[in-house]
Amino acid sequence: MNPIKQSKIFDTHAKIYEKRRKKTTIDTKWRHKLLAAASGDVLELSAGTGTNFSIYQNVTTLIAVDFSLEMVRYAREAAKETTFPCDVLLEDVEKIDFEENKFDTVVSTLSMCSYPHPEFVLEQMAKWCKPGGQVLLFEHGVSTKPIIANLQKKLDPLLSERIGCHVDRDMLGIVQHSSLHVTKIESHFFGMFHLISATV
């Protein structure tokens, strides 16, 4: 999908994301479990309205990126509530470039589904992370249950056009074939949601 069209889709959903940010939802405990490991100088990709900001515990600085103007507007308000320096950038993750070996932790939560080239983004994450640093992913993809997986594949063309997100990607396969060194995988909800810890 054209990134401009995709960003406009997320603009229209920003208010819904902002309401969810202030609530405890089904994925809240998974976010807490994964992000407890985040530390040092952190980069968060496709940060949305800043749902993760209040979860971080051992962060020195945070740079958050999103390509939706409305998402960034809400995220900048959420950044005012943090106890650490937090800079929210309006940028396309597939086009922005940071210096190599810059961050201690790179985070992505429920965003790899929306990138036109997720494999490229993973390699960028590896490049931006310091040697020995960590990449923390909370992502969703195709179910390990064949019946559900088939349904996802049938619905994906419609859903990707309406919500800007692919539901049938093999996220575990994509991550495992990247240059990241996966150290832990924890899957939930019919094998559709994954907590992934990796090093560079």
The fraction of residues in strands falls at 25-35%
Please describe the biggest sheet, giving its number of strands, its sense, and whether it closes into a barrel.
7 strands, mixed
CATH fold name: Rossmann fold
Helix coverage percent: 25-40%
| Gross CATH architecture | 3-Layer(aba) Sandwich
Looking at CATH, the homologous superfamily is: Vaccinia Virus protein VP39
How far the N terminus sits from the C terminus, by CA atoms, comes to 30 Å
How would you describe the overall organization of this protein?
There is one protein chain. The chain is of the alpha/beta class and 200 residues long. It has a single domain, classed as 3-Layer(aba) Sandwich (Rossmann fold). 36% of the residues lie in helices and 28% in strands. The protein has six helices and seven strands; from the N terminus they run H-H-E-E-H-E-E-H-E-H-H-E-E. A seven-stranded mixed beta sheet has the order 3-2-1-4-5-7-6. Helix 4 links the parallel strand 4 and strand 5. Helix 1 packs parallel to helix 3. The model has no long low-confidence stretch (mean pLDDT 95).
Give the tags.
single chain, alpha/beta, Rossmann fold, globular
Give the helices and strands, then pairings.
Layout: H1 3-21, H2 28-35, E1 39-45, E2 58-66, H3 69-79, E3 86-90, E4 103-109, H4 118-128, E5 129-140, H5 146-163, H6 171-176, E6 181-188, E7 193-199
Parallel strand pairs: 1-2, 1-4, 2-3, 4-5
Antiparallel strand pairs: 5-7, 6-7
Brief summary of the model shown:
The protein has 200 residues and is of the alpha/beta class. Helices cover 36% and strands 28% of the residues. It has a seven-stranded mixed β-sheet with strand order 3-2-1-4-5-7-6.
